[in-house]
Amino acid sequence: MSSPDTTQNTTEAPPSPERFDVEAVNRRDRQEPLYAPRKRIHPKRAEGGFRRFKWIVMMVTLCIYYLTPWLRWDRGEFAPDHAVLIDLYNRRFYFFFIEIWPQEFYYVAGLLVMAGIGLFLVTSSVGRAWCGYTCPQTVWVDLFLVVERAIEGDRNRRIKLDGEPWSAGKIFKKIVKHGTWLAIALATGGAWIFYFANAPTLAVDVLTGEAAGIAYSTIAVLTFTTYSLGGLMREQVCTYMCPWPRIQGAMLDEHSLTVTYNDWRGEPRSRHQKKRDAEGTPHGDCIDCNACVAVCHMGIDIRDGQQLECITCALCIDACDGVMKKVGRETGLISYATLYDYNQNMARAQSTDGAIDPSRVRDTSGRLLDTIKRTNWRSILRFRTLLYFCFWAAIGLGMLTVLLTRDRLELNVLHDRNPVFVTLSDGSYRNGYTIKVLNMMPEPRQIRLTIQGLPRAVMTLPEEKDHPQRVILLDVDPDRIHTQKIFVRSESEDLKEPKTKFRFLIQDNAGSERDDYNAVFESGVDG
Ligand code: SF4
Ligand code: SF4
Questions:
Q1: What is the spatial distance between Cα 412 and Cα 434, in angstroms, rounded to a whole number?
Q2: pLDDT in tens, 61-100
């Protein structure tokens, strides 16, 4: 690492970084009224490690969203082969090897609880990383900005274009840009409906006008929201519409990593550092180039401190690190830092009158002191975050265990209420029941139905009343509920009271899965 000197006694002048004529949308020293007109933001493209990481996250999340409905997963001939499918008609949710039935909706509730705890975990560790990297709003705004830059150029050219009078060239560029945005929005809405049906078939139906009206209206609504939220409203959604910035404040603590301007080494900022050096006036590392403001999609100035608008995307870190390298100083003037470390460094930098004195954090050669607190990713590992992680992992493991060991056979029984029982001519009693056997496997099964607790009782089917049986075999279709009416007949001598408890049992004839149901046999015997 170079050894910069705050007094700048260097013989070779470093290249001068570009200065940006940009003003934050909501400066600390000039807060806008609540209903101030919107200031148009023209973010400059950032370069650096965080930007590259964001490109990767953007590509991965977009690929997941657009390609998942086309993935196949073999579940045998009796079940759909989509890897992920929300089957509203049959009320099923398929996710690779997992199939969820409506009565198992608690798994979805469990997933939502995991998502909630996951957000607590991430926010308490690295602030609004969700907002800055993976939130759909952030991802689509990034994508729309790629299109905007490709057609209209980077920040300066876009500002120039917006300021020009309308011409054929300008109209053409705007039409191409908005047309491309609309195409992306259309693809986004189109991809969403593929999660609910067979994607290749539905794609053909949509293109040939054969799809259901709900498919077209869903595409229309999502096209409109994607285009307007991602293309037109952009940062306004995060600042004014999303509740998350308000909630996150309660989740951060002084050990959470957040994007921070280290004013203990940056102030007093100066655009004329050489002049200050010549005068012997102390100055910090910030050369007031505004690169950090120019790249910010939210249009804010991180040097004004933590703000509700900051989505922790870290692009200002990339921008400032680039500037620091150009002027030959240590990177990290803007960095991920905890409030605890920041306060310690600030206390070291402040002189007795409270003013920041940059020389207090540097040694005689101009290097930052070794005792200065630097970004420490190990601050993520602390009691609070480990507790969140343990909760999160325990719920996940519990759900996975239940999922992998759950029975795929279920029995439900409804007792006939009218009449509750019938007295037969030989003095025996008969009760009617509706048996519902739920086969949650994607293959047909033969199920043995028996009774337990009524020793000599027999069962008959409505169509075979003269054929009493102790065991009934039911052929159940794959992934279906099989409903069967049956009658149970018992001799009066076997009944000691008007209501006798017994059990229906079902067992997979070819496997080990079974289920039972506690039922009541009613009769006219005196208790
Ligand atoms: S201030 Fe920095 S981290 Fe915050 S939104 Fe702007 S560029 Fe992203
Ligand atoms: S913090 Fe960095 S990028 Fe921002 S104005 Fe200062 S030197 Fe430039």
A1: 8
A2: 999 999 999 999 998 888 889 999 999 988 889 999 888 8
